[in-house]
Write a structure and sequence with these properties.
By secondary structure, the protein is an alpha+beta fold. It folds into three domains: about 180 residues, no CATH class; about 260 residues, no CATH class; about 80 residues, no CATH class. It is built from 20 helices and 22 strands. It has a seven-stranded antiparallel β-sheet with strand order 7-15-22-21-18-4-10, covered by helices on one side. It has a six-stranded antiparallel β-sheet with strand order 11-14-8-3-20-19. α1 packs antiparallel against α6 and α17 runs parallel beside α20. The longest helix is centred in the first third of the chain and has 28 residues.
Length: about 625
């Protein structure tokens, strides 16, 4: 026999731990210590059987904690006080005596703690914790109903199995309703708890300005920037366009809002992609260079191919885009060359001298670009994120002294020399490359892939993409794909596929997604032709009827059995399995079987069945239900 109270205690602690674990990484030291003390105190008192902390003591202890965290609540710090208070309230309840009412409070607080963890992170692991928590709470509530009737109740293993079955079945029955209501329930464009969670930005490798020389070293961040569902493309074409820097302000490249008009000509076959972009402190949207169309509401499109959201949303966004990835974009009109030839007020003498060497040698803009490319290839520049030149003269140090730097140094100096030589150009900021997830069919682009390159305008060609970083002497080592396709990498990709599926189907599923689904369903319904469906049904109808007739004929003996015959067959199977006695295929009568078994359940079954069937009448509904109950009891006895 097993004590109900012990089972309830075990489940209560398990529910508390399950509710607070996802929240634990986001708590400060004090709530963590209180949680540990609460659990240890509760287990110690549970073991000793003496409860030192009375309910009134718990209530008094919570009051000053509530006041303390209420004072800390502010617009700039809204979430931390709330989650800290919830965790401490849960710890206090876990450390005290657990009556039926207190257990129910622990279950509610555990759900609140788990829900509050979604303010910080809503990964697929949240769904695992939620499912586990709901199963345990359903089972605990069933046990609490017995405990409320008799605190000293004991149950057998057979009864415990039935209780466990009831607790597991209840959440499973609710699952179809969850799957049905999730796609159709109304939802807002923004989470309702945004007031508790101000938009947060990630540590980003991408920036809305280019300023080489601002720091002596760069620390790479492998934080996810976005995923892009698309067919696999050649690695050299994976330039993800973000923004364009068209103006030099001292040593800094920025984006001017006075953008000259351009009429772009897209002639090649577009590459389609669906991008799922992570929350960011920038309004810029990314797609393969160069983007033709991008489908997202409230987005501005600049003539130079930059797409930006009208405001920061603080959430993941998804959109579709079409791009031409050849690296050459033709123009149907002339550009404002004066705008793209602007130089800073002061250009170092050595930079001017280098530009003057290129200008006379180049017959036209194309030859000037080729000469500058040749200079960069032959000057032994190295790509590096360490020991960088700093200060206002960083570009001059990079070109003539240190000769090492990252993409901002290569692109900025290359563009500065091009403009000094009379070639219109601009910088483009975005990402380069990405890891392709074969299982999910998408690219994973992280912040360490942030990159800057150059676009130069050449007559009879248009805007031509040039990546000066590729001219570094060690470029092959920097961008080589040396990742081994190990089992660990495959497991990582499989988990990322699941994570991406979760974000796509759950996290980013909002009102706009609902409307898209409704429109697709509506368009498909309108395409339905009843006449075609009827003809197809007639074609296959005869075959279906024939198959159904064959199946019915093969199983007619069991399908046409009366309920008296069905219950007798069930009894014979149970009898033989339970007592390991053969009925000799009906040669033994019911009363003989009863005598051989010597079992009360068998005697009761025989008495009811014989009292009906042996007197030439059918079983009544009450008799049939009684026989079913006797058989269930016989099976578990």
């Amino acid at each position: 026999m097993i004590a109900i109270r012990g089972l309830v205690a075990i489940l209560t602690y398990a529910i508390g731990v399950c509710g607070m674990l996802p929240l634990l990484p986001w708590l400060s030291t004090f709530p963590r210590m209180v949680l540990a003390c609460g659990i240890l105190s509760g287990l110690w008192q549970e073991r000793s059987g003496v409860w030192q902390f009375k309910p009134w003591m718990q209530n008094v202890a919570i009051v000053p904690v509530f006041i303390y965290f209420s004072v800390q609540f502010s617009r700039s710090n809204p979430a931390d006080p709330v989650v800290s208070l919830l965790s401490i309230m849960l710890a206090v309840r876990l450390g005290g005596e657990k009556s039926v009412r207190h257990c129910q409070q622990i279950y509610a607080l555990s759900i609140f703690c788990l829900a509050s963890s979604s303010l910080f992170d809503l990964s697929p692991i949240f769904l695992v914790y939620l499912g586990l928590l709901l199963f345990m709470i359903a089972l605990a509530l069933v046990l609490l109903t017995f405990l409320d009737q008799n605190s000293a109740m004991m149950v057998s293993k057979a009864d415990l199995k039935r209780i466990l079955y009831s607790g597991i079945v209840m959440p499973l029955l609710a699952l179809p309703l969850l799957l049905f209501f999730f796609p159709i329930m109304p939802r807002t464009q923004l989470p309702l708890w945004d007031f508790l969670m101000p938009p947060t930005s990630r540590t980003s490798g991408y920036s809305d300005a280019v300023q080489p020389g601002s720091q002596s070293s760069i620390t790479e961040s492998h934080t996810l920037a976005f995923r892009a569902e698309m067919m696999r493309q050649p690695q050299p074409q994976l330039y993800w366009r973000g923004t364009v820097f068209n103006r030099i302000d001292g040593n800094r490249w920025i984006r001017s809002t006075q953008i000259p008009a351009e009429v772009t000509q897209f002639t090649d076959q577009p590459v389609r992609q669906t991008v799922y972009q992570e929350p960011s402190a920038s309004r810029t949207l990314f797609a393969l260079d160069r983007t033709n169309t991008l489908t997202l509401q409230r987005v501005s499109h600049s003539p130079d191919g930059v797409f930006q959201m009208s405001r920061l949303t603080g959430k993941r966004v998804s959109y579709s885009a079409e791009s031409q990835i050849t690296g050459i974009i033709r123009q149907n009109n002339s550009i404002n060359k004066r705008f793209y030839l602007q130089l800073p007020d002061q250009v170092p003498d050595r930079v001017q001298a280098l530009a003057k060497k290129i200008t006379p040698s180049g017959k036209d803009d194309r030859s000037k670009v080729e000469l500058l490319e040749k200079y960069f290839r032959n000057s032994n520049y190295r790509y590096s994120t360490k020991e960088l030149a700093t200060g206002d003269g960083a570009l001059e140090q990079f070109l003539f002294d240190k000769k090492q730097g990252h993409c901002e140094f290569f692109a900025s100096s290359f563009a500065l020399l091009l403009r000094s030589a009379g070639v219109p150009c601009r910088l483009v900021g975005g990402y380069l490359g990405g890891e392709y997830n074969q299982m999910g069919g998408y690219y994973i682009v992280t912040e360490d892939k942030a990159h800057v390159w150059v676009e130069a305008f050449l007559d009879r060609s248009g805007w031509v993409r040039i990546d000066p970083s590729a001219f570094a002497s060690n470029a092959g080592d920097v961008w080589a794909d040396n990742k081994s396709r190990s089992l660990m990498l495959q497991a990582t990709m499989a988990f990322d596929s699941f994570n991406h599926l979760w974000n796509r189907l759950v996290i980013t599923y909002d009102f706009e997604q609902q409307m898209n689904v409704v429109n697709r369903v509506n368009s498909r319904i309108q395409k339905i032709n009843p006449a075609i469906i009827l003809r197809r049904l007639l074609q296959y109808g005869a075959g279906i009827l024939l198959l159904a007739g064959i199946l019915f004929f093969a199983r007619r003996s069991s399908l046409l059995l009366s309920r008296e015959e069905r219950i007798m067959r069930s009894f014979i199977r149970t009898f033989e399995r339970k007592f390991s006695i053969s009925t000799c295929e009906g040669r033994l009568g019911l009363f003989e079987l009863s005598a051989v078994a010597g079992n009360q359940y068998v005697s009761d079954f025989v008495a009811i069945y014989a009292g009906s069937v042996y007197h030439d009448r059918r079983l009544t509904d009450d008799e049939y239900r009684s026989l079913q109950r006797i058989l269930r009891a016989l099976e578990i006895a």
